[in-house]
Amino acid sequence: MAGLMEDFGNFTHAVVRAIPDSFANEDSRRKKTVEVDLAKAQREHELYIEVLRHQLGLRVLELPADESLPDCAFVEDAAVVCGDTALITRPGSDIRRKETEAVKMVLKEMNLNIVEIDDESATLDGMDVLFTGREFFVGLSERTNQRGAEILADTFKDYAVSVVPVQNGRHLKSFCSMGGPDLIIIGSSEQAQRALKIMKQMSDHRYDKLTVPDDAAANCIYVHLPDKGHTLLHCTPEEFPESAKVFERLKDYLLIPVSNAEKVKVDGALTCCSVLIHKKV
Amino acid sequence: MTTEVVSEAEVKKEPEKADEQPAAPQQDAEQESEQPAAIQDGDTPRTASPQTDRKSKEARGLSRFLPPWLKRQKSQSRTEPSEDHEDKAPMEEQLEAPPPEEVSPQEAERDESHSIGSADTQPAKEEKGEEFPERIGDGKEEEDLLESKAGEKEDEPLKAEAEAEKSSLKPAKKMKTVTCQVTLLDGSLLPCEVEKRAKGIVLFVKVCEHLNLLEKDYFGLCYKDHADQKCWLDPAKEIKRQIRNCPWQFAFSVKFYPPDPSQLTEDITRYLLCLQLRQDIASGRLPCSFVTHSLLGSYTLQAEMGDHDPDACCLDYISEFQFAPSQSKEMEEKVVELYKTHRGMSPAQADAQFLENAKKLSMYGVDLHHAKDSEGVDIMLGVCANGLLIYKDRLRINRFAWPKILKISYKRSNFYIKIRPGEAEQFESSVGFKLPNHRAAKRLWKVCVEHHTFFRLVTPEQPPKARFLTLGSKFRYSGRTQAQTRQASTLIDRPAPHFERCSSKRLSRSLDGVPGLGMDDQAGATSLGRTPGEKNGRDPALELSSDSKSKLRVQGENIYVRHSNLMLEDLDKTQEDVLKHQASISELKRNFMESTPEPQPSQWDKRLTASPATSLRLRAQATAEDKQKSDTLEQAEVEIEETVVIKEVRKAPKVEVTVPEVVVTAVTEKEPEKKPGGEAEGRGGEGVTQRGSTSSDSHSESEDEAEYHPQAPSVSVDQIKELPEEEEELEVEAQPLEAEPTAASPCPTTEEQEPALKDEAQNGHPESQSPQGSVEEDEEDEGEPKLNGDASRAETEGFPQVICCSEPPVVKTEMVTISDTFAAQKTEISTLEVPIVHTETKTITYEAAQVDGAGDSEPGMLMTAQTITSESLCTTTTTHITKMLKGGVSETRIEKRIVISGDSDIDHDQALARAIKEAKEQHPDMSVTRVVVHKETEVMEEGKD
């Protein structure tokens, strides 16, 4: 069955998308009015892609940027891939809806089973979907609604899909991510802890948790590499010194700090910038 | 002790005993050791129950002389109170078979009509050999017919046939038999002939034998009721009474889906589980992704077809298989593609792989029930091994692990769970759901009780004792738990049975099971199967119990009482505060309850016999305890309301108040063996009166409500390693007392003891908490009540005469629970407690109509019973005097219940000493046989946790 625990963290491909120049000046898409250094962001992104390609050994499929879609680099929101199935989302922000088209195309080319959301009332951001290897948690946020979550559940019938309310305009993975097969990395904010509590209650499985001081630092990318074993992409000490220390507790892990300072300003966490796929040959 | 033994020797006198005991485990062991006997065991239950019935019959005889209300009471004590006439009549017949000596005159009369041969004397054995042994007289059947005439009509033809056949085979016996059509998991039909009044287990055992299935506890039989709902056939109850006028058609199916099928011992068991899952998948009940459908399908092919034959064109026949509710060509191709990769895999391995993948599906083993939440939104409640899942559409919106659930109850069409407060929370909360109807609510409740017991407990919880005023369903799962069945499975020692895997593409094919020796277990009966295709179909009527237990349960179920207050419940106390307004009512009830004896004389007798040294009136103690219990319970119950709302009950911190209750029971025994039963009856009578309007109609279906406290038993259970839960730790605190009920299971209990004590400490009842609760009662010999009771008794020890509650009182663990709950959570309770003691004087007198030759079997006649209450400054004394006539000897028992209330400064020890002393002085000619101390201290809310 797809997504067996043993497969968790095993990926072969990554879909990414370049950051358009409109990235920095299109503040309309976000409430944040932070200054974003476009060049810096693009550099970060390139480094990020390098890591995926060289350190993780993934085949990286890079989509060209679309200037009309400032957030298009955040491909995670556009699709949820689990096993051989890809659910093309319907992002909660209508100006981002078109981002899914290119992502869908590339996934289709990979021969994944493509599922699309027809329901006009449904919204779903990939950033709200946490797949633990055993089950899904879906954040019900400003970007993801009940209907969207239902469709996710319908798409991945093998797995339990539990809902977790997420407020304050954030996504579920704004403060958490998987750090290993049974390890949830969670931020320290009240919201994060509340969400964790809910997830624990909803699950038949017991997860370990790794709490980091900064919510943003809790978004990491876990990959299990055939040669290197557990591998974690996480924030750099420059960004979150306290949180970075926490990761050192992970023994037997290959820790790869990845700078994300600019993208994170617009809620562009590490996981946001790629769709990881395990495509058996 | 074997069930059989009970039935032959002890049952007569103490039918209840048999029931109460957790015979299942023991029997299991036996069964396994001797397979041939297995069949017997299966039947044994029946035997036992019949005897019980007999007893009831006797009671009936008495009842002629008794006022109607008394009769009523008796009926309750019977196995199946609800349908007095019809049911009883038939049952009695069966009962008659047993030993002639004991047959009461009345019975004898009846027997005449039947051809009771010497053969009948040993009903159990006959049953083994013949499926329908007990059917003695046909003439009596007419009585039964009352139940459902319509049904009868339908049955007639079948019956006729069956009988014809039967007669040809066994001319000596006249038995009405019916041919049941049992749909097996492979889709084939198995005609099974059973006696018309056979219990569910008879059919179940037959089917298992046909299948050559030993690990049967995971399975069960389903039928469809008139509303087209799938129901589990209760092995302990007569088939006919369950299905009513529905056709005798059943489906053998999996009831408890083993979370880890690899732990099953035999391949045949796994194979059957595979068949069930294939049905589940094909019907859509078990949702799968495309990939999983394909993968599972490929294993199915490998198991059924063997290695892929490159020469044959799979795609030709493959579409005959159903891999999914709707399968595309694409899926079939995928199936074949995967199928090819399984080359070399044996069928058993393929099945194992199938299961390894299927078990990971999120809906594996989840029994779904439609419901609405408190806001009327449609949701689904899913019962599974780990707890209760709440779904809205496909989304899981909540989950309550068993350890998190303190109580499960239903009332009318509402279903409630009480949730243990979280770490940071102070209050328990209750969540209510609205089910489509009452039956659905009950069905859900039963499924929960069963799943909790099966997966979380080491041994089944004893069904609540049939107390006189007890309301609601007493249903408990009495089959083997998963832990037990696993243990039993390790003993399976036979070569792997040969069985043929039939192709799932063909619908009707018969599994050639070698009709073998099934080891039957009562427990086995318990395991019900899920009817293929039905999600919700848990059977409402499921009262699985080992046969012996079944009696008790039945009683409970039948009893129908509108007042939820009367329910005996431990945990409820927590919320008692809410119920204050009902305090007065509760008091009244209590009084009655107090006087209510347990209708299970046999146990007492046994005990007495067992421990001659203590010629104590266990009874008395029990009663006393019962009283307390009942009080507690009552209060608790009140909480439950019809409204489906999520409530949070808040308990206001209270001032410390210590209310020790001292119950001194003095009993003069003129006969070494006296039976409480008589007393019980008398009391029961009272209770009946009060109830008045309690309708006899109580059927299992008619029950409005029932509760179940998963925690109690679960304490021990929770500790099972296999079922680790986060909440476990928390549980311990709250549930210590409840552990008691497990008395039946020796080991667990002991273990629990410690935690319980700790809990108390934690909760802030420091020293003085002598938990009443701790008093456990084992109804059986086996249970040694050493647990909490002993530890807590320290106070009592000072007095030589004081008997530790830990003795074999009737009262269950529940009591213990109560105290805990109190201490830990409630402050106000104590306030309520005080009022418990009341001033009521009742005298009931009637003449003994009949004395049975068999002293044991006949409970003494109640001569008089009165209750006098007096109050002084800080003590309230309730005296209950009972005079019984037993075997020509009269016995007077006096029970005093003294409630000492006051500040914490009271010297309880002194007060207790004084009370005992006074009691002795007042009745110099009597001896104090039992002292039960129940101390309750109110603790500030903060104290807990």
As a percent range, the share of helical residues of chain A equals 10-25%
Q: CATH first level of chain A: which class?
A: Alpha Beta
CATH topology of chain A: L-arginine/glycine Amidinotransferase, Chain A
List segments of chain B where confidence is low: pLDDT < 50 over at least 5 consecutive residues: 1-172, 506-702, 712-861, 937-945
Largest sheet of chain B: 6 strands, antiparallel
Structural class of chain A: alpha/beta
Biggest sheet descriptor of chain A: 3 strands, mixed
- The DSSP helix count of chain B reads 33
Binned, the helix content of chain B reads: 40-55%
Quantity of strands of chain A, as a count: 15
Question: Average pLDDT value of chain A?
Answer: 91
Order of helices and strands of chain A: EHHEEEHEEEHEEEHEEEHEE
Q: Write down the overall geometry of chain A.
A: globular
Low-confidence stretches of chain A: none
Report strand order across the widest sheet of chain A: 2-1-15
In short:
The complex is a heterodimer of chains A (281) and B (945). Chain A is of the alpha/beta class and 281 residues long.
Explain how this protein is built.
Chain A: The active site is at 171 (proton donor), 272 (nucleophile). Chain A: Belongs to the DDAH family. Chain A: One of its GO terms (molecular function) is amino acid binding. The complex is a heterodimer of chains A (281) and B (945). The model of chain A has no long low-confidence stretch (mean pLDDT 91). The radius of gyration of chain A is 17 Å and the shape is globular. Chain A has 281 residues and is an alpha/beta fold. Chain A starts with 12 loop residues before the first strand and ends with a strand. Helix content of chain A is 22%, strand content 24%. In chain A, the strands form 5 sheets. Chain A has a 3-stranded mixed sheet, sandwiched between helices. Chain B is an alpha+beta fold and 945 residues long. Chain B contains 33 helices and 20 strands. In chain B, the strands form 4 sheets. Chain B has a 6-stranded antiparallel sheet, sandwiched between helices. In chain B, helix 1 packs across helix 23 (601-610). The longest helix of chain B is centred in the N-terminal third of the chain and has 29 residues, at 35-63. Residues 1-172, 506-702, 712-861 and 937-945 of chain B have low confidence and may be disordered. At the A-B interface, helix 4, strand 8 and helix 5 of A face helix 14 and strand 9 of B.
